[in-house]
Amino acid sequence: MNFELFVSRRLISEKDFKSSISAPIIKIATAAISVGVIMMLIAFGTGLGLQEKIRDKIAAFNGHIQIESFSSRSQQVNQNSIPKNQEFYPAFSEVENVEHIQAVATKYGIIRTETDFEGILVKGVGEDYRWDYFEEYLVKGKLPDVKKENSTEILLSQSVVNKLALQLNDQVVVYFLAEDASSRPRLIAFTLVGIYNSGFKEFDDQFLIADLQQIQRINKWDADQIGNFEVFVSDFDDLEITTREVYQYIDSFLNASSIIEQYPTIFEWLKMFDMNIALIIGIMILVAGINMITALLVLILERTQMIGILKALGASDWSIRKVFLYNASYIILRGLFWGNLIGLGILFAQKYLKLIPLNPQTYYVTEAPISIQLYYIIGVNLGTLILCLLMLILPSVIISKITPIKAMQFE
């Protein structure tokens, strides 16, 4: 059997480190490791969860990449049309990261009721529209059926519905400005069949989801004319690279832009969470490491006579250092166990019970979102174990300064 591991096990089992000197120090070190792991897991879980949730919400309304005519960005009211018949549609197989592509169109309008009115952006969608996100945000009613001819069913946000005092199945009259200022506005009477609430007020107050055919009809477009394409990717981390690849495969009169380019302020704000996570990790590992160094030094000083006896019997300094590093590993692993148990328990409780609410006006979400990923759980545990042990190697050099003669002197 490994000599160092054997001695370390005997020390660990000896009254479970319950000596009068080292017991409280060891408990503090274990607690420091546990608290550090809890804080790091929560930082990763909430930070990544918030980033993913906000990205998903922006993508729900815009896709990850938008393909449109160059002139559409400069249009304030009317969107220029582009041909729906493209080589990359309906399957953008030329770019590997592209997961889905859909044809849409938007047009500004005004919802008018007997007592109030509200400006709105009507987004027309077709049979290829990806409803995954809105199924999650749906709070009342159903999703619009856009498969039938000139469907008048619409989806409207809870915030707009509350402002205008609307109910499910109410008739919603939307006025559209004509391109010719001298012409009278055109109107369409829609039927409210679904109410959604994404928690992203900036978009909830803006979007009304309707049938693409209605936008084509109001703009006097052909069935082959649309406003833009929305592209979804499978790996968001490669979005900027994918956007460039998409741009290379589309016609010269079309432009491709990612949601990072369209909403730079939001994504710059999200990057700050990476800095916060890194700062928390650094502080927690430093605190845990200092506590472990203290615990190791106390263990060494408490076992000075044992070190002297081992040296007298021929044990090398490195061999004795390994004994105490094994002891420190036991303390770290015990701290990791409790840290993971409590930390993951908190994350799962928030993920499924939604105990901690957030202000949607500040964070764009109604509760703290959680992302539980195996890679950061493993990284936190391995990183804490390795870095703490590396920090302990240097303090363990004190063992080489202990001489057998002085160490074995009994008072």
Summary of the model, kept short:
This protein has 411 residues and is an alpha+beta fold. 50% of the residues lie in helices and 18% in strands.
Explain what you see.
The chain is an alpha+beta fold and 411 residues long. The protein folds into two domains: 3-56 and 267-407, no CATH class; 81-226, no CATH class. Helices cover 50% and strands 18% of the residues. The strands form two sheets. A six-stranded mixed barrel has the order 3-4-9-6-8-7. Strands 2-10 form a two-stranded antiparallel sheet. The longest helix is centred in the first third of the chain and has 41 residues, at 22-62. The chain is elongated. The relative contact order is 0.19.
What key attributes describe this structure?
411 residues; alpha+beta; 2 domains; two-stranded antiparallel ribbon; 12 strands; 50% helix; 18% strand; elongated; Lipoprotein-release_system; Permease
The chain-level mean pLDDT equals 85
Q: State the order of secondary-structure elements, H for helix, E for strand.
A: HHEEEEHEEHEEHEHEEHEHHHHHHH
Whole-number tally of structural domains: 2
Largest sheet: 6 strands, mixed, barrel
Topology summary:
Layout (H helix, E strand, L loop, with lengths): L2 H11 L8 H41 L2 E5 L12 E2 L14 E15 L4 E9 L6 H6 E4 L11 E5 H7 L6 E6 L9 E11 L4 H4 L2 E5 H8 L5 E2 L1 E6 L5 H11 L4 E5 H4 L1 H39 L1 H9 L4 H37 L6 H4 L10 H20 L10 H4 L4
Parallel strand pairs: 4-9, 6-8
Antiparallel strand pairs: 1-11, 1-12, 2-10, 3-4, 3-7, 3-11, 5-8, 6-9, 7-8
Family: Belongs to the ABC-4 integral membrane protein family. LolC/E subfamily.
Subcellular location: Cell membrane
Keywords: Cell membrane, Membrane, Transmembrane, Transmembrane helix
